Amino acid sequence: MQFHAVRFYRDDASLCAWVARMVVRGLAENQPAIIVATPAHSARIIATLSQGLDVAALQREGALTLRDAEEMLSTFMVDGLPDWDLWRRTAIPLFNKLSGPERRTVRAYGEMVDVLVQRGLVEAALRLEDCWNYLARAYPMSLMCAYAADHVLDDEDIHKICWRHTHASADWLIHS
Prior knowledge:
By secondary structure, the chain is an alpha/beta fold. The chain has a single domain, classed as 3-Layer(aba) Sandwich (Rossmann fold). It has eight helices and eight strands; from the N terminus they run βαβααβαββαβααβαβ. The strands form two sheets. The chain has a six-stranded parallel beta sheet, sandwiched between helices. A two-stranded antiparallel ribbon has the order 4-5. α1 crosses α2 and α6 (112-118) packs antiparallel against α7 (122-138). The radius of gyration is 15 Å and the shape is globular. 38% of the residues are buried.
């Protein structure tokens, strides 16, 4: 695994600016990007990216892929937990397409884990983090996750989340 960062955030604007910076850096290095986010965050990230990039062209060229977090979750969740086989059937074809035959590093941003935590499904979020980590062993990627700070319930949850990442930060500790 190359890079799997988590950011705990209180401010949507700071989060979306962080994601946009990560995507721009990746695109500059010929790394395609996928954003799996809520519609509100996707719109804000795209608005930021649109200030300097032709987002529609990037999508047409396959350099930028957008997915709705809720819709993607619906493809692999069973009884409140990620189903490993369904996850693989969803994620592997997507990453095969994104990384291409040259196996380029993919920049991925996801907040499906935060959606699960908002539903009170912390264990499901942790299992989904494990699914991502497994995928990151098979595909070169820089993966960024985010959790709203007011949804993570206790220190133990934070510890379990951070343990599954190579880097952790909080937007109230870092200047955007």
